[in-house]
Design brief:
By secondary structure, the protein is α/β, with parallel strands linked by helices. The protein has helices at about 20-25, 45-50, 75-80, 95-105, 130-145, and strands at about 1-10, 35-40, 55-65, 70-75, 90, 110-115. Helix content is about 30%, strand content about 25%. Strands 1, 2, 3, 4, 5 and 6 form a six-stranded mixed beta sheet that branches. Helix 1 crosses helix 5 (about 130-145).
Length: about 150
């Protein structure tokens, strides 16, 4: 069982979609007693990873319909309450789908916190947009607060 997990999601070859992975790579973990995991595009593998953590902080680029670089904190329960029509995740099998599968298997995922950043550019290419890059320091601070 993993005590506390910080999980970065996304694809670094698709611009802002790589936010989660790039953020966790910059996280200074020396003073944190957590496991850091590059979830990249784990898909259904997210289910077991999240299920085996006492607490999980997931960092990802999420489509919230906001200004690029906007940061938001969600619980898994809040995401499960989103309308079925809302995409939220940018991945084929994203976090929302994994949480729904977990819910159908009676997992409550009360242990999962999501820190999401609204992307500006999703598409082939490396590096974050200026707006998303500016959000990274605040994302790192939010992660530290969640795991403290």
């Amino acid at each position: 069982m993993i005590k506390t997990l910080v999980l970065g999601l996304g694809n670094t070859l698709f611009k802002d979609d790589g936010l989660g992975v790039q953020a966790i790579e910059r996280l200074e973990v020396a003073s944190l007693s957590v496991e850091i995991k590059n979830g990249a595009t784990l898909g259904l593998g997210l289910f077991e990873t999240l299920k085996n953590a006492d607490k999980a902080v997931v960092v990802d680029a999420v489509d919230m319909g906001q200004t690029p670089g906007t940061i938001a904190r969600f619980t898994a329960l809040e995401i499960l309450d989103l309308p079925a029509s809302q995409n939220f995740s940018l991945h084929e099998i994203g976090l929302l789908e994994v949480l729904k599968i977990g819910k159908s298997l009676n997992e409550d995922f009360r242990n999962v916190i999501i820190i999401g950043v609204q992307p500006k550019e999703i598409g082939p290419g490396e590096g974050l947009s200026e707006e998303v890059e500016k959000a990274v320091p605040q994302v790192l601070e939010m992660i530290k607060k969640e795991v403290a």
